[in-house]
Design goal:
six-stranded mixed sheet; mainly beta; Immunoglobulin-like
Amino acid sequence: MRLRGREAPSALLLGLAFLAACSVKAPVYGLRPSYPEVLRRSGGGSEAVFTLVDSTRPQLRWEDFPPRDEAGLPIAEPALAKVKWVVYDVKVYREENGSPGALVEEKSGIAEPRHQFQKELAPCARYFWSVRARFLLEGREEATEWGVVASPGRDRWVPVTPDPGYFRFQTPCGKPRS
């Protein structure tokens, strides 16, 4: 169907747009993603939604570690002042039956708080992903927990990998953009 010279949006895209309009930021444990945003349905729903990304090669982004205040300065917590050598690890899983399935991307030792996919992901597909920071603290290598969506009744950290609470996104439908 065409609307005034343009393709009509698919029902899936309209549904995702509706979900985005009816969604709020979800609380998270671990590093907070900045793109794609972690959203849940407004009105008290605790389950995260699959946020539509802009391409089949999205750039995932998250907050720095150690965390910074709104002015961009490191939070003045004595233990965090001793943190050195920060790198990030990312894992991305294809969604299968509403849960994380096959591991499709795993990168370790990322220097900046972002990850650009080098290969195209499948169009119109759903993915789970998570990130953690690794760092030196007083000469010992430490790591944050893998990031997850916080939800009522959930223990902060569940020792399951991959975790069904991982962040979520969906690639756009149609031909990949070059």
